[in-house]
Write a structure and sequence with these properties.
The complex is a heterodimer of chains A (about 100) and B (about 400). Chain A has about 100 residues and is of the alpha+beta class. Chain A is built from 3 helices and 6 strands. Helix content of chain A is about 15%, strand content about 20%. The chains are: A alpha+beta (about 100), B alpha/beta (about 400). The interface between A and B is medium-sized, with 17 and 20 residues.
Chain lengths: ~100, ~400
């Protein structure tokens, strides 16, 4: 089982070993700790040489998984679900969706 | 103090006695009197609660869930189509373990549209994870509401509970009701201690995503809590008896000691069934009656204990699982299927959509059941008591 993070009454996030009543997360931030990138079937790959750093992909990403990098935008594969909106919206067409597995 | 009142007034008065913090409600026949009385209590300064007018029953239950998650004691009422509109929110209230209490005026479901009594609305919601009480009379309407708060809010339970009261037969019929003193109810019902509170100073996530890793375990825990609430309801009924002098059980038996045939009933039809049992007994027939006051958690042990060694069990139901038959019959039969000794069971539907239930119907049920036992099966499953076949 992959790790799943939920708060405990003791405070702070910890790996969940027991479910809480009604699956309540007693401290916020659990969604940050839960890596959901595993849902992805297509991975966005950014061509650094073509990126103009307009950051439209960063704005459009519905999961805040596209970050501003030094030379280009940088997908955060821990959370990216591979929806492809970044590739579709990129005016420079520098993002390619690549299959995770064949 | 004895007061004459309608069933709806009993549930509204019970709500007032339990001092809920929030009451979101949307009117619907035959429960409209509930929000009417609550708004009068609030306008007259008799009840300190946030009475929230909403635009639908879906919103009423959504508001109830939000208020309960914020730590409030919440009460509401609905019926029939209104309960059906709440359907998805009922499962959410139970899944989030929020002890909301709701009075439901048991009314038929459309189509054809019908405002009269049957129990289709609540029986159809028996899978939602709510505790379900069914009142026989107006006294039980008041008492079960108070018991519902106490059982649902118990730390071992944390579950919502609904109290079913038959449309018009109870909701609009005047009966004497012994109204407990406010101080006594305050002593019986402790202040609500929520398991989670929406609070900006101490943020938490309530109603979050349950991934495949944990959804099943959450449902297991919910089911177990509802099953285990049976013992808490028994405890609450015992404490209720000590506090108010009226003793209740999830299942109660009437003249079953040497009974060969036992009728199972639920709700207001029980009074009529009791008259029929007395008549049949006077005619020398060994007939008894078992009343269910709680449908969820399903009281299978108590039912089987009350049925004892009876040869025939006839389940009379004011609702039908379409395409199957009597839902309670099926549930009870399921609990007998592995027993080496089990009674012959028959299933009857009666009193749908406000059709009067008469003692003659129970006499018919007993006669048909005896005939079915002799034949080894029922002519038609389920049987229909009081059906006018001339118009079919």
């Amino acid at each position: 089982m992959r790790p799943y993070w939920l708060s405990s009454r003791r405070g702070g996030l910890e790996e969940m070993t027991k479910i809480t009543l009604g699956l309540v997360a007693h401290t916020p931030g659990a969604s940050k700790r839960n890596k959901t990138g595993g849902w992805r079937t297509l991975r966005p790959v950014v061509d650094e040489t073509k990126c103009k750093r307009c950051w439209l992909c960063v704005i459009y990403c519905p999961d805040s998984a596209m970050k501003k990098g030094a030379k280009s935008s940088r997908p955060d594969y821990d959370y990216c679900k591979g929806c492809g909106i970044c590739a579709k919206e990129c005016p420079s067409k520098c993002i390619t969706m690549v299959a995770e597995a064949r | 103090m004895m007061q004459i009142m309608r069933g709806n007034e009993a549930t509204a008065l019970a709500a007032k006695l339990c001092r809920p913090n929030v009451i979101p409600a949307y009117p619907i026949t035959p429960s409209t009197m509930f929000p009417e009385r609550i708004s009068e209590y609030v306008a007259d300064g008799e009840l300190d609660t946030y009475f929230m007018l909403v635009e639908s029953e879906h919103s009423a239950m959504s508001a109830a869930i939000g208020a309960s998650a914020a730590g409030a004691r919440v009460c509401t009422a609905t019926a029939s189509q209104g309960l059906a509109l709440m359907h998805e929110m009922l499962f959410i209230a139970a899944g989030m373990r929020l002890p909301i209490v709701m009075a439901v005026g048991n009314r038929a479901l459309s189509a054809p549209i019908n405002i009269w009594c049957d129990q289709q609305d609540t029986v159809s919601e028996r899978d939602a994870g709510w505790i379900q009480f069914y009142a026989e009379n107006n006294q039980e309407c008041l008492d079960f509401m108070i018991a519902a708060f106490k059982a649902g809010e118990d730390k071992r339970v944390y579950l919502p509970a609904m109290v079913g009261l038959d449309a018009f037969v109870l909701t609009h019929t005047m009966e004497p009701v012994d109204v407990p003193e406010q101080a006594k109810v305050d002593g019986f019902l402790p202040s609500y201690a929520p398991h989670c509170i929406l609070d900006t100073k101490n943020p938490m996530t309530i109603g979050a995503l349950g991934t495949p890793e944990f959804y099943m375990e959450t449902r297991y825990a919910l089911n177990k809590a509802l099953m285990d609430s049976a013992a808490v309801i028994d405890e609450v009924f015992r404490q209720f008896g000590d506090a108010f002098g009226r003793k209740y059980q999830r299942v109660s038996a009437y003249r079953t000691a040497d009974a060969e045939t036992v009728i199972i009933s639920m709700g207001s039809m029980t009074g009529t069934a009791r008259v029929a049992v007395d008549r049949l007994r006077a005619a020398g027939k060994k007939v008894g009656l078992v009343k269910m006051s709680v449908l969820r958690p399903f009281p299978h042990r108590e039912l089987k204990e009350a049925i004892g060694n009876a040869r025939i069990v006839a389940v009379a139901e004011r609702a039908i699982s379409l395409g199957y038959g009597g839902a309670i019959f099926g549930e009870l039969a399921g609990h007998y299927v592995n027993d080496s000794r089990r009674p012959f069971m028959t299933s009857f539907i009666l009193g749908l959509g406000g059709r009067d239930i008469l003692p003659e119907h129970f006499e018919e049920i007993v006669a048909e059941s005896e005939k079915a036992l002799a034949a080894g099966k029922m002519d038609e499953m389920p049987g229909w008591a009081g059906l006018n076949r001339e118009v079919l």
